[in-house]
Amino acid sequence: xxxxxxxxxxxxxxxxxxxxxxxxxxxxxxxxxxxxxxxxxxxxxxxxxxxxxxxxxxxxxxxxxxxxxxxxxxxxxxxxxxxxxxxxxxxxxxxxxxxxxxxxxxxxxxxxxxxxxxxxxxxxxxxxxxxxxxxxxx
Length: 138
What we know:
The chain is mainly α. Helix content is 46%, strand content 0%.
């Protein structure tokens, strides 16, 4: 009966084996990692420029502008119809030609229906505004 009790006890931790396992894990991780040394700003994200401190003394110096970078920034913010000559996705096809087919004439009663208020709608509009004002105060 004493033999099962010995098998239940844990063996002491071997530090050399733990260190070898750790070193092998690090080597496997380093095989799949790449070191990036070139960084650039994403042209598709808004750029927030902060001004210099007022008393820094560098207020008169102007930095050189990179025209190709500015062109890519401004080009990324354009709408798709100005960027591309034709739609790239099916969703873009729906609204690609956004110019109206018929010129709208506001004086033509057949196509233009302006909002009209009757006495009842004017009364209910005033009552609704009064109700909102009393709710906001209370």
